[in-house]
Design brief:
Helix content is 39%, strand content 19%. The chain is built from 5 helices and 3 strands, in the order ββαβαααα. A 3-stranded antiparallel β-sheet has the order 2-1-3, with helices on both faces. Strand 1 (2-8) and strand 2 form a beta hairpin.
């Protein structure tokens, strides 16, 4: 079993990671043996976790969460469906289109 987790540090930073043992990984983070940037900001607390059967599916989810804005992560952590919906809509669909699709149609000239 693999877990994707979100930690909140004492400095209020959010950290998204992946592990096979959440309790052990949290202990490592708080002892300074976790991710480099979290070492200086110990005292992290687990605010969210979810389990996956395969490492590959857990990694896909981890990458997805890491791409989210802080606002979206905060709404997700507190399970604010209304805010999540608004944050999803706030992204411009054009942002994800291929540049060729953004060009205005021509009249064949």
């Amino acid at each position: 079993m693999h877990f994707v987790y979100i930690l909140r540090t004492l400095g209020n930073a959010l950290y998204v990671g992946i592990t096979e043992n959440v309790a052990q990984r949290l202990s490592m983070h708080n002892s300074g043996k976790g991710a480099k940037w979290i070492k200086a900001d110990r005292g992290a607390q687990l605010v969210y976790s979810e389990s996956y059967l395969t490492l590959s599916s857990a990694r896909k989810r981890e990458v997805q969460l890491k791409k989210w804005s802080r606002a979206k992560k905060e709404a997700f952590i507190v399970r604010d469906a209304t805010a999540l919906k608004k944050l999803n809509r706030s992204r411009s669909p054009a942002r994800w289109r291929h540049p060729e699709q953004l060009r205005k149609p021509t009249d064949g000239r």
